[in-house]
## 1
Amino acid sequence: MYRCVMAGMLFLLFACGQMPQTHYYTLNVSPPKTDAAVFPHPLWIKNFTAAAMYDQDCLLYRSTQHEIKFDHYRRWVSPPTDLLQSQLTAYLRALGIFRQVSLILPRQQPYYVLSAEILQFEESGTNDGRGAGVRLWIELNRSDLQEVVWQGYVE
């Protein structure tokens, strides 16, 4: 009896196979060459915000319009709020359209303030294969005038 139990346990141990491998992903955005005018004041990029489901490192995907699934074996190297904020910061620094781009509140007045909310950041399955849905609400304000310089959706 003991041998049968041990043989059954060994069979189950070897039949289960390996654990799935976890894959990690990041974004690398290259800024275009530009001769755009430089804004005369520094830019402060505030921490990005997002709904709770977009503020974690698991990739999200939709198999239907109303169903969202979490893929625990495909992950971002950091939560999308941090990942997109760091990519946008690097992008704007390389673009060179602001005198300075900072994640820390500038001491110099006036300055521009950029805030962003992640509204969608997911993979979607389509008839043509895989696609991605990315949607942000971005606002650019000027600190001394308390006015909106630009606001809108970026997709």
Note: Helices lie at 2-15, 80-95.
## 2
Amino acid sequence: MYDKRHTISNQMYEINLHIIKRTIYSLQAFLLIRLQMLSLSRILVVLVKKEEGILKSSSTQTKKNKSSHSKNLYLHYTQIHTGIMLFRDIPGQQAVKERLIRTVSENRVSHAQLFLGPEGSGNLALAIAYAQYINCQDRSQSDSCGVCPSCIKYNKLAHPDLHFIYPIAKTKEVDDKPVSRLFVAHWRKLLIEKAGFISLFDWYEEIGIENKQGIINAEDASEVVRTLSYKSFESEYKVMIIWMVEKLFHAAAPKLLKIIEEPPEKTLFILVSENADQVINTILSRTQLVKIPRISDEDIVEALLSRYEMSREMARKVALLANGNLVEAALLVRRTGSENYNFEQFRNWMLMCWSNDVPKMLAFGSGLSSLGREKLKDFFAYGLRIVRSCLIYRHSENVSLKFEGKELEFVQKFSAFIHSNNAAFIAEEFEKALFHIERNANISILFADLSITMAKLLKMPAVEKPVSKIM
């Protein structure tokens, strides 16, 4: 008799516990919806006041930046309302979206996938949208619902079963044993601000490690194993997204191999990469590849028109220059009306090298030494693009270059000094510079040496046979 009463008591306890849990989840979802509605109300009030002309600047700095801010104002209210994690909010990539949705509808979700695509292709945004779609409680045949408790948390990147790992390093804020979870506030802020389209430079700048190399360290690898050993909190799948997996430190890789190959049940790994050649082979071989191409120019045009106040003609010019990179397109929009820093610096440097003005070349190198590593890498990447464009212009007729204005004029004139005999050497020297910058070379010495080499290369005759070494 006692055993029977005891069994009934345990059953009642479990039922009550289940009711309490469901009540807590319902209250949590209700509060999140209320918070979202309050935020939306505030946004609408601000927009109405802006249109009526009665919104006043709250500071002198705001007044100074009012004109530029209005040009860059996001108008896409739907994106503000529903978040950044829906397939429909990601420009283009329709074929990739359909393929991902089909894996869910056909119950063929691979436990480890590598989303491989160049910067600005939306590889990270697609990874998050895919994870949200899998865990959505009321998904349609084409997208997540965007309003269920799971989607609301995904929109805020705060779902308890969604985890992120990304390159990090010591900063002023985290100066000992950095791990990804210590930077999660910065991660959420940047992703939401950029609508899921970020570059490695954006991330380093956000957390303040511009002069260091971010890595995915062994501590984070241990964190992955520990986190995924727990049961999922509320969703069917636990999702681990590892962004820029090519930055995985070699000592961290062995800790991830086994769990990626044999993960716990209902666990999804999504690795996001921009360069498959830099991904460790043992990691690469354990994933299913999802190739993500560059975004088409037309899709970039539509994305720019929906996000910024600009003409279609200007959007087309930006899309042409961006070359399928939405991150670069957004950067170009922000640069509208001002000279491109890399262009000005590169043009001045080439003029110094051509005139062999050694004092100016040394001063130039000293000046650039104050820039961060990522900005210097961006500078040399821009230089490689100029050299390539000059060579194409020199040897092709009626070629359409992705430059305009002063940049186009410079490329046309500079192409007289770039030819088949020296272009490969120049590209090689720039690649060497990038290599040494990543290994903390002295910038002043590096530019002094490179400037002298460039002075010789620019004066190499086009008719001269290629040489094996430049002294």
Note: The chain is about 55% helix and 5% strand.
